[in-house]
Amino acid sequence: MKRSSFITWEQLKVGAVIVAALVVLAFAVYKLGQSANLFSRRYTLYAYLADANGLAAGGTVLVAGQFAGTIKSIDFLPVDNDTTRNLRVAMAVDRSLETQIRTDSKARVRTLGLLGDKVIDISIGTPRYSPLRPGDTITVLPSLDYEAVLSQAAGAVNDMVGLTHDLRDITSGIVEGKGTVGQLMTNRALYDQFVGTIGRANAMLTRFENPNGTVGRMLDDPTLYNRFVTVVTSADSLVRALNDKNGTIGKLLRDDTLYTHLVGMATAGDSIMKAISSGQGLAGRLLNDTTLYDRLNKLTTDLNAILEDVRRDPHRYTRGLICLIFCK
Questions:
Q1: Which of 46, 93, 41 is nearest to 70 (CA)?
Q2: What is the pLDDT of residues 84-131, one digit of tens each?
Q3: Are 64 and 103 a contacting pair, CB within 8 Å?
Q4: 179 CB contacts (<8 Å, ≥6 apart)?
Q5: Alpha carbon 301 to its chain's center
Q6: Cα(254)–Cα(256) distance, integer angstroms
Q7: For residues 78 and 109, is the Cβ–Cβ distance under 8 A?
Q8: For residue 182, with 0-12 CB atoms within 10 Å meaning exposed, 13-18 middle and 19 or more buried, which class applies?
Q9: Which residues contact 311 (CB under 8 A, 6 or more apart)?
Q10: Order of strands across the sheet that contains 139-141
């Protein structure tokens, strides 16, 4: 049977729908590529890392937080002593941002959100530095290790749990009446004593506030303050007088004449003591010569005997004395 050469209306509608779908698909692909910068020209920058830290080929590259390219590849480098350059990351960055990325720009591996994908974020450089060219290397700053943060957070949680247990033990002891705070919370007698003490303290403060009392007068009467100011002023005048170089105290403090005389007296006294100790002179012989001591002792004994005899028979000595006076 011969097929008709005319296009039917149904076929035309199907073809129109297919064409429209292809146009929509092309427009969507164009828009998606435009939003993802798939059709923009790019150039390659390199960064060296100690570890990938969650990065993968095809990952996102940001400049100042805005989408700027993708990670082309992550390659291992030969093993050497520099453990900070284990991996080489090739980044395809939009050429339109070439003037923004300069030699003072820094890259950092960070996370989109708390648990999001890993990305490389590049900071914008300053005009005083030249832009990075294709194939140049950008410096990577150390990134925050979330595993270490989570480990520290776990330690903090453990400490908080231990603190909660301690607080529970403390509150249990208070409820059971243990310790001073527990007794204050549960012991009615101690509470009453505390209230009584506060009442007596209030009564004492009331007495202190009495304007006719000693403390009240000290607080309200300026007489004591004025007297204290007078005493301080007098003391200041006395200190000034003592500091006067023409006064007695001032001369004692500043003039070394008295000190010189005292030194001379001490020297002379030392010479006298040395002379006495050596037995020179009367004082030295009195201290060192036992013969003179014995004679003085005998003389004292004889005088005492004569005085005793005079007391017993005074006429024996006065008769001759009277004759001696009147017989002439």
A1: 93
A2: 888 999 999 998 888 999 999 999 988 876 667 889 999 999 999 999
A3: no
A4: 173
A5: 86
A6: 6
A7: no
A8: middle
A9: none
A10: 42-49, 87-94, 66-76, 60-63, 118-122, 106-111, 139-141
Measured N-to-C along each axis, helices 281-288 and 257-277 cross at an angle, to the nearest 10 degrees, of: 50
Query: Residue 103 corresponds to which tokens in the numbers above?
Result: 């030699």
In this structure, what token pair is assigned to residue 33?
């590529």
Cα dist from 194 to 184, 190, 201, 202, whole Å:
9, 6, 10, 12
Q: What does the block give as tokens for 22? A: 């292809």
Interhelix angle 179-186/188-208, nearest 10 degrees: 90
Strand pairing class (118-122; 106-111) = antiparallel
- Collapsed DSSP state (helix, strand, coil) of residue 94: strand
Buried b (16+ CB within 10 A) or exposed e, 151-179: eeeeeeeeeeeeeeeeeeeeeeebeeeee
Report pTM. 0.40
Measured on CA atoms in the order 292, 294, 300, 305, is the torsion positive or negative?
A: negative
Q: Report the alpha-carbon distance of residue 204 to residue 198 in Å, rounded.
A: 10
- Strand segments (E) across the chain: 42-49, 60-63, 66-76, 87-94, 106-111, 118-122, 139-141
pLDDT along the chain (328 residues), means of 10: 62 79 78 61 90 85 89 89 86 90 91 77 92 91 70 79 83 72 71 82 78 68 76 82 72 71 79 71 67 79 81 70 56
According to DSSP, the residues that pair with 63 across neighbouring strands are 66, 122
Residue position matching structure tokens 């890392």: 49
Rounded CA-CA distance 148/155 in Å is: 11
Please list, in sequence order, all residues whose beta carbon lies within 8 angstroms of the beta carbon of residue 184, skipping any fewer than 6 positions away: 190, 191, 194
Give Dmax (Cα) for the chain.
215
Record the tokens describing residue 28, joined without a space: 């969507």
